[in-house]
Amino acid sequence: MRVLAIGAHPDDVDLLCGGTLAKYAARGDSVTIAVATNGEVGAPDPGMTREEVAAIRHGEAQNSAAVIGADLIWMGFSDEFLFDDRVARERFIDAIREARPDVLFAHSETDYHPDHRVAGTITRDSRIPASVGLVDTTYASTEIPTVFLMDTYKGRNFEPEMFVDISAVIEKKKAMLSAHDSQNRWMQHIFSTDMADGMLVQSRFRGEQAGVRYAEGFQVLKDWPLRGDGSLLP
Question: Which helix (H) or strand (E) holds 218?
Answer without folding.
Answer: strand 215-220
